[in-house]
């Protein structure tokens, strides 16, 4: 049953395989009257685009966005925004060798078992290529959030393997190849990846994110809590294996007297909660962490089976990211934008005229 | 906008406040012909029920389930199953003192800001009492999964504060007050909680879960991946701050050559993925961890403000769980049952007649 | 797959069979702060309630509504409103004779074929009894629409068999047993039904409706047009076989020069469109007609088969409405309220801050 | 809030304006393994395409379909099918004159009031051009229904103005310019339209449809009844003002003894119900009628206002259909295919393993 849509009010539906003619999406429900052009989206796509440094896949996709509808005279009209990206560098021949194999850690086996067939070229629908459409749709949401509501979303490489970002300089994030806020750590990451590439191996990563300027009141208990929909959105990104809000798994060892964020007339005194209380945004910064597994496409030989159930050795020789966590950074931001935008609209549907008893009191 | 429903094919909608007349839910879409009676549900509710040991809230709720519809002559009919639980031990007077206060870590502030008003009696809708309806609905799904598909779901207390379950004896889980698979650890937990209660403090916990007998093919990429919907379901449970599938956050430091689960003709050689590849169940056991924050209702005085924005000290004196993680165990199981059931039906809608090329090859 | 919910923002989920312990519903997404008590709902239920005149079924249901949640201190809280009605007069024995028969025109056959079993007592889920929950939920929406937005909804018996309401006196609608705006026609209807009852037969009806005070801008093209969701809601009512908006089927013979409603600075000059243009409310009155088939439960013997496929004669001897169109009047109103309320919220989600270029110009 | 998607399991999302770069849609949830190529879709698009006779708009659109995803090696893969149609003959200059005017009967006024702006070129999103994407998506569903389930869908022009099709020859439907099953009536329609075109006026129509080979059991009471979702789908088509199932509005004057379709061991004896009982398909042919208003774009001058609220005269001089009912025929078929396909999948989700007690007994 159809699973390629996300959002209720700001609904994004995507299509496209890695090596088909094109990928794209429909952004339905965008508020009208927002200035929007291709450049607004292209700037975000370019951050995710492969082939921009030696540390990501050398596939050369221009990822040129085309707006097909929903914008007139430079402004959104409120009707669905059709977005299209042509695939230009497919090299399908790279994949003929693994056509009948299940690459360990890949979706090859599960897609075949679920659907009885699969587009084996570059992972087909399960390829990270699909995330370009998320970034495109996210760019629309993000622009609205930023310009209309003052919401800013920032993600960064917090950890790659055992290498941590130890300092935080927001300006540094866009300066290195890793979206890393610590210039020194970025240098170590470069060296580490150079070595890893030679070995033909890959590495996991942790991406952290912070959203500032959060409106109070977003989230729809009891199931569609803000953090629940964020968790879903994050875990829907390829390779994500864990999601944590605020203090995340550290809460396991915390006491209530420590965890509960004290409040004073001038603001919250801490933010262990990560900006969500009872499933609803508190107006504090939203903070979260995402764990991203190492790419499954590696050159090191591994044991597997073929589609006939026979033993086989797998070596993946296509162009791949040794650390998908790098390019996950703009994707995490995009998915956050989609969820927050959707929840802002959902909140407005029910509570547009509610007078909050207090002015917001973020930390 | 409405957020109290979950599931597409097996859809559960809930209602009810902690201190209103009743809580309940509708289970819509259950396959017809399944034997079902109150006892099938009561047995699960009794596991979650408060007041069963000195370690959980002393509120005495009988949590008596009543099936109002959808069952005829002992079998489900395929029509909505209405489930009702009357609240019997509300003691609303306990809450008058905190009527105008925002308890740190609680949803008091966010509910008031979102809706402009709130039912302050016992947390109202944000109370963990709401989760009884999840357990009731989950019992229906769980019975179907177990009896019809051979799927078994088990969660347990893996860690309370710094106390870990160090051994795993499945039979032990139901023998102690903590759903702990390690009898020795359970003794330590009891001592720890006795001390904690005296201090008036609370503690976090980690609940782990495993699902055996998983069908292959469940999950609807790209957004409604199985792990994405599980993450949402888990994070929709009160007090949950983190969700991890398979190796979870440990993947950050893993290499691809380690993480990718090798396959042989006789099965997977490991299960780092936790039973999901590309958003679709592989047939391996589903494994996950959930981080649960310490209860925010503690007797230790804390700094906060009142509804007028004035400084105030808060002491929560009602009956509360010092470790909500304990009662979270059956709730985690129930939410897993709901998601898996829903995805089994979703998969069937599209792929009921697909011939999987291979027999399942779980580890 | 779950089909007992309606609405996106103002979402109603229902449960219950004719002869089970209770029927009920959850109203999720209601804006907070609206005064609401049982009497607000009871007044609408009493209009639909059976046994109020000799012209409707003599089943005696008190249809006593109980609000289980979502209201605190007399005001809606924004959380789900649980509504419950106990069944009190079931007389299941009446149905034992037709347990194995398919009554012509009834859902007996299709429920059994779809689900493999059915609750045969009084039609089970397919009974018109289910509509009581729609009226209860509709009462909540209707109160909001009336008091908050000035929207008024009125339906009436426009035609019963060949008897037409020839005059329209709004005050008369509540004075006779048929919701008929023409007192003379009502007298003829009474005589006609008395004769029909003796024959053991039943008759069809046309119910018309008008909504005044419509906001401009409701409806979400291209699929969720206002008239599309209204058509669905109407056709979801038991026994409805046709829905028409504005001039309805008369448009087949109209010319464009006649049909298109001219506009002047002081308003629309006609309302052939029935208040909807391009799927969006124009601010004119919403007008519609609904065709309701004759009750299938009649005393006249008919030819059918039993559950073994054998020929059988069917006589329905339970307590039934000779003209279900009568009690359909409040149900049509309730369903209209649900759709308009939902669409008002949906519109607000996307367009709450849109400045309409013109003040509304209804006729 | 997003309204450009339809269907739960077989979900279609559309985008595109009349005079933008392209229109298109995503078909999500299609069962895998079905042969599909552009020609399968093009053949349906060509039936709806404008400019094929003098009786429809002279706009020359090639309506060339491109499949962008979801098909691999000639078979559907189960992933979303992206479909694209470039707009090639826009002539936007035709519309500059009515940029600031509200054409009577058009969506100009409501779009502007709802969204605060509108794409005035050719009606933008409200143009019938949007329906090409419905036909494209419908072609996918239709192929599956026909080849996999033996379901056949046929619609035809039953009445244009006061001209009725008086005989029914299925083969004739594709032979004339009106999809009319009566060759003689088609000749009269041609003459009538020739005269009408000279007057610059337009005319309404009634389109009837019949679906044969219906599976028993489709439809999800109580709200998502089969006829309810059909009514919505029909009323979501531009210009549709009425929908009737089976005997439709004729039931108003019918008696129960006449309306209820008798059943014998060899089949139903009549089909007043139109193939649906209690919201669920009975296996009989599905029959319905749709009322389509006359095109609002006519050359006859009409009174209206401009966007400043000032009086204005409107003459529509673009290329338009004098009877939109003609091209509605393939659109009605497409929407029927979408609804039936979706409901077949929905039914399967819940009831795939139900053993129907009886073999189907259609008339």
CATH architecture of chain A: 4-Layer Sandwich
What's the pLDDT, averaged over the residues of chain A?
Answer: 94
Proportion of residues in extended strands of chain A: 15-25%
CA-CA gap between termini of chain A: 43 Å
From the structure provided, what is the oligomeric state, counting identical versus distinct chains? homotetramer
Tally of domains of chain A:
1
Based on Cα principal axes, name the global outline of chain A: globular
CATH overall fold name of chain A: Chorismate synthase, AroC fold
Secondary-structure-derived class of chain A: alpha+beta
Name the pair of protein chains with the most residues at their interface, and give those residue counts.
Answer: C-D, 125 and 126 residues
CATH class of chain A: Alpha Beta
Radius of gyration of chain A (Å)? 21 Å
Assign a percent range to the helix content of chain A. 25-40%
Largest sheet: number of strands, sense, barrel closure of chain A: 5 strands, antiparallel
Q: Could you name the ranges of chain A where pLDDT drops below 50 across 5 or more consecutive residues?
A: none
**H-E order of chain A:** EEEHEEEEHHEEHEHEHEEEEEEEH
For this structure, what is the CATH homologous superfamily of chain A?
Chorismate synthase AroC
Helix tally of chain A? 7
Strand sequence of the main sheet of chain A, in spatial order?
Answer: 1-2-3-7-4
Pathway (chains A, B, C, D): Metabolic intermediate biosynthesis; chorismate biosynthesis; chorismate from D-erythrose 4-phosphate and phosphoenolpyruvate: step 7/7
Binding site for FMN (chains A, B, C, D): 125-127, 238-239, 278, 293-297, 319
GO biological process, one term (chains A, B, C, D): amino acid biosynthetic process
Catalytic activity (chains A, B, C, D): 5-O-(1-carboxyvinyl)-3-phosphoshikimate = chorismate + phosphate
């Amino acid at each position: 049953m159809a699973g390629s849509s996300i959002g209720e009010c700001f609904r994004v539906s995507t299509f496209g395989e890695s090596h088909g003619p094109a990928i794209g999406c429909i952004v339905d429900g965008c508020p009208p009257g927002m200035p929007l052009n291709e450049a607004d989206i292209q700037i975000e796509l370019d951050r995710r685009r492969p082939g921009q440094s030696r540390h990501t896949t050398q596939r050369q996709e221009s990822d040129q966005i085309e707006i097909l509808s929903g914008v007139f005279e430079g402004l959104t009209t409120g009707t669905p925004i059709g977005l299209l990206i042509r695939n230009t560098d497919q090299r399908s021949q790279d994949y003929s060798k693994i056509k009948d194999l299940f690459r360990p850690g890949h979706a090859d086996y599960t897609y075949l078992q679920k659907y009885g067939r699969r587009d084996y070229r570059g992972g087909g629908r399960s390829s990270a290529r699909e995330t370009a459409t998320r970034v495109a749709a996210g760019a629309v949401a993000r622009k609205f959030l930023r310009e209309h509501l003052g919401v800013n979303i920032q993600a960064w490489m917090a950890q790659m393997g055992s290498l941590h970002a130890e300092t935080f300089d927001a300006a540094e994030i866009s300066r290195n190849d890793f979206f890393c806020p610590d210039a020194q750590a970025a240098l170590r990451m470069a060296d580490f990846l150079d070595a890893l590439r030679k070995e033909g191996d890959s590495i996991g990563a942790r991406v952290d994110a912070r959203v500032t300027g959060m409106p109070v009141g977003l989230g729809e208990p009891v199931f569609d809590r803000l953090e629940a929909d964020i968790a879903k959105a994050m875990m829907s990104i390829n390779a994500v294996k864990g999601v944590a809000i605020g203090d995340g798994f550290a809460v396991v060892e915390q006491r209530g007297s420590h965890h509960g964020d004290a409040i004073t007339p001038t603001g919250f005194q801490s933010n262990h909660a990560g900006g969500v209380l009872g499933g609803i945004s508190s107006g504090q910064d939203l903070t979260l962490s995402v764990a991203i597994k190492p790419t499954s496409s590696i050159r090191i030989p591994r044991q597997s089976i073929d589609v006939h159930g026979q033993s086989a050795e797998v070596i993946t020789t296509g162009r791949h990211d040794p650390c998908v966590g790098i390019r996950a950074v703009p994707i995490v931001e995009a998915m956050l934008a989609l969820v927050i935008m959707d929840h802002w609209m959902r909140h407005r549907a029910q509570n547009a005229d509610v007078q909050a008893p207090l002015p917001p009191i973020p930390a």
